[in-house]
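**Paired protein data**
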Amino acid sequence: MTDLSEAAVARQVPDMTDERLRVLTRRQPVTVRPGTSLNDCLRAIRRGGTGDSVFVCTDDDRLEGVLTERDIFARLVGGEIDLSLPVESLMTAEPRTLDLDQTIRDAIELMQTGRYRNVPLVDAEGRLVGVVRQVDIIRYLAESFPQELLNLPPRPHQSMKAPEGA
Protein backbone atom coordinates (compact mmCIF):
# COMPACT_ATOMS: atom_id res chain seq x y z
CA MET A 1 0.00 0.00 0.00
CA THR A 2 1.21 3.51 -0.79
CA ASP A 3 2.19 5.69 2.17
CA LEU A 4 -0.22 8.63 2.04
CA SER A 5 0.74 10.22 5.35
CA GLU A 6 1.30 13.99 5.42
CA ALA A 7 5.04 13.43 5.93
CA ALA A 8 5.26 11.12 2.92
CA VAL A 9 3.40 13.55 0.70
CA ALA A 10 5.55 16.45 1.91
CA ARG A 11 8.67 14.48 0.96
CA GLN A 12 7.37 14.07 -2.62
CA VAL A 13 6.55 17.75 -3.24
CA PRO A 14 10.16 19.08 -3.14
CA ASP A 15 11.18 16.59 -5.84
CA MET A 16 8.34 17.75 -8.06
CA THR A 17 9.27 21.41 -7.70
CA ASP A 18 12.68 20.59 -9.16
CA GLU A 19 11.01 19.72 -12.49
CA ARG A 20 11.64 22.11 -15.37
CA LEU A 21 8.96 24.62 -16.30
CA ARG A 22 8.61 22.96 -19.69
CA VAL A 23 6.53 20.20 -17.99
CA LEU A 24 3.78 22.69 -17.13
CA THR A 25 0.94 23.53 -19.44
CA ARG A 26 1.75 27.05 -20.59
CA ARG A 27 -0.89 29.66 -21.17
CA GLN A 28 -0.89 31.77 -24.28
CA PRO A 29 -0.10 35.29 -23.07
CA VAL A 30 -2.24 38.29 -23.94
CA THR A 31 0.06 40.65 -25.82
CA VAL A 32 -0.09 44.20 -27.09
CA ARG A 33 2.36 46.31 -29.07
CA PRO A 34 4.12 49.41 -27.71
CA GLY A 35 1.92 52.49 -27.97
CA THR A 36 -1.32 50.63 -27.21
CA SER A 37 -3.64 52.74 -25.03
CA LEU A 38 -4.35 51.73 -21.43
CA ASN A 39 -8.02 51.45 -22.37
CA ASP A 40 -7.22 48.95 -25.14
CA CYS A 41 -5.00 47.04 -22.70
CA LEU A 42 -7.91 46.68 -20.27
CA ARG A 43 -10.11 45.43 -23.11
CA ALA A 44 -7.44 42.90 -24.09
CA ILE A 45 -7.21 41.66 -20.50
CA ARG A 46 -11.00 41.19 -20.32
CA ARG A 47 -11.10 39.52 -23.74
CA GLY A 48 -8.27 37.15 -22.85
CA GLY A 49 -10.15 35.70 -19.91
CA THR A 50 -7.13 33.82 -18.53
CA GLY A 51 -5.20 36.45 -16.67
CA ASP A 52 -4.94 39.88 -15.24
CA SER A 53 -2.11 41.28 -17.32
CA VAL A 54 -0.92 42.09 -20.80
CA PHE A 55 2.60 41.66 -22.05
CA VAL A 56 4.07 44.40 -24.22
CA CYS A 57 6.04 42.87 -27.06
CA THR A 58 7.82 44.18 -30.12
CA ASP A 59 6.89 42.99 -33.62
CA ASP A 60 9.38 40.10 -33.24
CA ASP A 61 7.76 39.06 -29.90
CA ARG A 62 10.56 40.34 -27.65
CA LEU A 63 9.19 41.19 -24.24
CA GLU A 64 9.48 44.87 -23.32
CA GLY A 65 7.16 45.11 -20.34
CA VAL A 66 4.09 43.97 -18.48
CA LEU A 67 0.99 45.83 -17.39
CA THR A 68 -1.30 44.33 -14.76
CA GLU A 69 -4.81 45.27 -13.70
CA ARG A 70 -3.26 45.95 -10.30
CA ASP A 71 -1.00 48.62 -11.87
CA ILE A 72 -3.99 50.39 -13.37
CA PHE A 73 -6.37 50.07 -10.41
CA ALA A 74 -3.74 51.25 -7.92
CA ARG A 75 -3.43 54.45 -9.94
CA LEU A 76 -7.21 54.79 -10.30
CA VAL A 77 -7.70 54.65 -6.53
CA GLY A 78 -5.09 57.36 -6.03
CA GLY A 79 -6.65 59.77 -8.47
CA GLU A 80 -7.42 60.37 -12.08
CA ILE A 81 -5.79 58.34 -14.80
CA ASP A 82 -6.03 59.00 -18.50
CA LEU A 83 -6.86 55.67 -20.15
CA SER A 84 -5.84 57.10 -23.52
CA LEU A 85 -2.19 57.16 -22.39
CA PRO A 86 0.12 54.57 -23.98
CA VAL A 87 0.90 51.37 -22.12
CA GLU A 88 4.48 52.55 -21.56
CA SER A 89 3.20 55.15 -19.10
CA LEU A 90 2.30 52.47 -16.52
CA MET A 91 3.93 49.20 -17.56
CA THR A 92 6.78 47.60 -15.70
CA ALA A 93 9.68 47.74 -18.14
CA GLU A 94 12.08 44.78 -18.25
CA PRO A 95 10.00 42.53 -15.98
CA ARG A 96 11.48 39.52 -14.22
CA THR A 97 11.24 36.46 -16.44
CA LEU A 98 12.06 32.78 -16.38
CA ASP A 99 12.99 30.36 -19.14
CA LEU A 100 11.66 26.86 -19.76
CA ASP A 101 14.78 25.21 -18.31
CA GLN A 102 14.32 26.82 -14.91
CA THR A 103 12.45 24.91 -12.23
CA ILE A 104 8.97 25.06 -10.81
CA ARG A 105 10.69 25.98 -7.54
CA ASP A 106 12.19 29.05 -9.28
CA ALA A 107 8.69 30.11 -10.38
CA ILE A 108 7.24 29.62 -6.90
CA GLU A 109 10.05 31.65 -5.32
CA LEU A 110 9.64 34.47 -7.85
CA MET A 111 5.88 34.52 -7.29
CA GLN A 112 6.35 34.68 -3.52
CA THR A 113 9.15 37.24 -3.37
CA GLY A 114 7.91 39.47 -6.18
CA ARG A 115 4.19 39.03 -5.47
CA TYR A 116 3.63 38.03 -9.11
CA ARG A 117 0.57 36.15 -10.29
CA ASN A 118 1.85 35.77 -13.85
CA VAL A 119 5.45 34.97 -14.71
CA PRO A 120 6.48 35.51 -18.33
CA LEU A 121 8.51 32.74 -19.92
CA VAL A 122 11.04 33.76 -22.55
CA ASP A 123 13.47 31.98 -24.84
CA ALA A 124 17.22 32.73 -25.13
CA GLU A 125 16.52 35.72 -27.41
CA GLY A 126 14.03 37.28 -24.99
CA ARG A 127 10.95 36.31 -27.03
CA LEU A 128 7.83 35.63 -25.02
CA VAL A 129 6.94 31.92 -25.28
CA GLY A 130 4.29 31.63 -22.58
CA VAL A 131 3.15 32.60 -19.14
CA VAL A 132 2.86 30.51 -16.00
CA ARG A 133 0.35 31.27 -13.25
CA GLN A 134 0.00 29.96 -9.70
CA VAL A 135 -2.98 27.85 -10.71
CA ASP A 136 -0.86 26.12 -13.38
CA ILE A 137 1.63 25.04 -10.73
CA ILE A 138 -1.07 23.93 -8.30
CA ARG A 139 -2.80 21.93 -11.03
CA TYR A 140 0.48 20.21 -11.98
CA LEU A 141 1.25 19.29 -8.38
CA ALA A 142 -2.30 18.05 -7.73
CA GLU A 143 -2.37 15.96 -10.91
CA SER A 144 0.90 14.32 -9.94
CA PHE A 145 -0.61 12.62 -6.91
CA PRO A 146 -2.69 9.46 -7.09
CA GLN A 147 -6.44 9.80 -7.22
CA GLU A 148 -6.70 8.25 -3.75
CA LEU A 149 -4.74 11.16 -2.29
CA LEU A 150 -7.01 13.76 -3.82
CA ASN A 151 -10.04 12.11 -2.25
CA LEU A 152 -8.63 11.81 1.26
CA PRO A 153 -9.85 14.01 4.10
CA PRO A 154 -7.50 16.90 4.97
CA ARG A 155 -5.81 14.82 7.69
CA PRO A 156 -5.97 11.08 6.88
CA HIS A 157 -5.24 10.03 10.46
CA GLN A 158 -8.22 11.98 11.80
CA SER A 159 -11.51 10.26 12.30
CA MET A 160 -14.77 11.71 13.55
CA LYS A 161 -16.19 10.27 16.76
CA ALA A 162 -19.71 11.08 15.63
CA PRO A 163 -21.16 11.83 12.20
CA GLU A 164 -21.48 15.49 11.29
CA GLY A 165 -24.63 17.11 10.05
CA ALA A 166 -28.32 16.44 10.54
